[in-house]
Amino acid sequence: MSSVHLNNIVKRFGAVTAVHSTSLEIPEGAFVTLLGPSGCGKTTNLRMIAGLLDPTEGEILIGGKRVNDVPIHKRNLGLVFQNYALFPHKTVADNVAFGLKYRDVPSDDIATKVQDALELVQLPDVGDRYPKELSGGQQQRIALARAIVIEPDVLLLDEPLSALDANLREDMRVELKRIQERIGVTTVFVTHDQSEALAMSDQIVVMSDGRVEQVGAPEEVYNTPASEFVANFLGASNILAARCTRRGPEGVDIEAPTFGKLTVPAEKAPNLGSEGPAKLVIRAEKLLVSRDEAPEGVLSVPATIEAVDYQGQAVRYFVRADDTQLQAINMIDQHPFATGDAINLHLRPIDCAALPGD
Amino acid sequence: MSVEAREARQPWILLSPALTAIFLLLFVPLLFIVVYSFWLRTSTGADQVGFFLDNWREALSDAFYRDILLFTLKIATITTLVCAVMGYPAAYVIARSKGNKALLLLLLMLPFWISYIIRTMSWINILGVSGALNTALLWLGVINEPIQMLYNQTTVILGLVHFLLPFMILNVFVSLEGIDTNLEDAANSLGATRMQAFWQVTLPLSLPGLAAGGLLCFVLGAGTYITPLVLGGPGDAMFANLVFEAIITQLNWPLGSALSLMLLAVLGALVLIYNRYLGMAQLMKGLG
Ligand SMILES: Nc1ncnc2c1ncn2[C@@H]1O[C@H](COP(=O)(O)OP(=O)(O)OP(=O)(O)O)[C@@H](O)[C@H]1O
Ligand SMILES: [Mg+2]
Q: pTM score > 0.95 for this model?
């Protein structure tokens, strides 16, 4: 178990810069997720930590030691790939035992450790089979067993769940988290799936275009996005061009179209200056569609429903208030509103966040 | 007609032109050769039709034929091993090269555009008494008289390797291409050096390609008569040269037929063994 530090890492492939100067601190034992859209440099970062790619600039430290010049086979890392990468010509037991053969493990202990690892991933009876004889989810568990049996300092996972179907993916994510907590290994997890990231991580690193957009705990990144990109990437948000008129110790006064004047809590607008253009961020779940009048302290704006996207326990409304199109995601227990209904939009100012404007 | 019946017939309809061609051009002539091998060539030079076992008795009992068959298998084995040792690294480099893979493959194919006979004969201009190498050595003063480098077993193997190497490289290349590069990365991450990862993962997974290339080199090498004819000495005749000799020179078609069937049987048995062994290995390894 070790911490991982990236100090001003840059990675260029010829003319393409895949990772722009990135610094990250991953504490010992943490579960940190690199989250971002396709091509943003998640895999590149992970492969640099693993030693499969050399950074063009900057330093990588694992457990406080610089590892730039340490070859991959000496870094003691557990690596899990999206396509499992199990050795097809070896049995499951031989796959799991592979890394132990390169360590000073007495051969009697190898079998025990392999069996323990297989039990940890809840597949104690498949040691004699070949990878091809397992389902995708089972193969992924074996890949995990193979990576953790060597007691790695850091576990690196590159979209390990994305090849699984939706139900299995949710089971596996609980399972993976359980195993990680049990062995307490420092884990760097790569995904482009925000719900995976939110559910599993101690810290999320949101990336875009080779740059880190925000680092924070899931609820922090979710509730206080540091940029428009983060607000849009994690869940659905409404972003309105607005103006900041005053910054006080308690809150920031914002003047926004449709909603008029409101005060956003200061901690939800950390990057906003005292006066000037701003952006109001309203999460789609925080916008309540209702026929009733708003209670005290809640803004209410009349609007019309333009489209309804029914999702079972929740429904997503596309609504129009004045000239502003907004989306609202509400839980429902009965019938959703219908297209064309005139309703009120309720919004609590403390649920809003604000960003500096353009 | 039911859908199933129509679907079952479709492959046969699509295959029928090819099957017809194979039947007429391969199977029928082969039958002729089988029939021929039981005829007899009389001292007057005419073929006597009938069912005689004389050719077979001669081909199977004469130590002369047996020795040349063994010599042929030996040359083919050496050639195959040389091709494997030389071809594998080349295939590996091509498979792992980043940008210019297409160019390298094109260069590999280039020799196929020149007739095999001409490629074989080109060695005479290089190794012959007045060839490039001798001329250069004379000019440099290393030797005073040209050396006889041609027409021995080594030049036969040289010619065969020249002919067969691309087949080996292509087969190994294809199997290396099919191996997920993540497997080597995974092996490295688990503590294996690049060399250990190669021996543990890449080499075993590429064995089917190596075996296929080896079989091809062996069968083509053992069946050739041009290379020993052009680059071999009098003592370097291979089995196909005997067939050539019997049929073209002596016009003894019945004996030539029996000899060619003998070679066919040996090489055919080899293919069957390969098929059976690799078929099982495939199952056991659980390869896709
Ligand atoms: N070997 C390479 N040569 C050139 N460019 C590369 C190479 N590897 C990655 N890139 C580029 O670097 C950028 C980041 O790639 P990377 O694989 O890290 O993205 P990613 O975030 O993992 O995306 P995905 O979610 O699709 O896996 C991309 O624009 C990609 O085209
Ligand atoms: Mg990736």
A: no
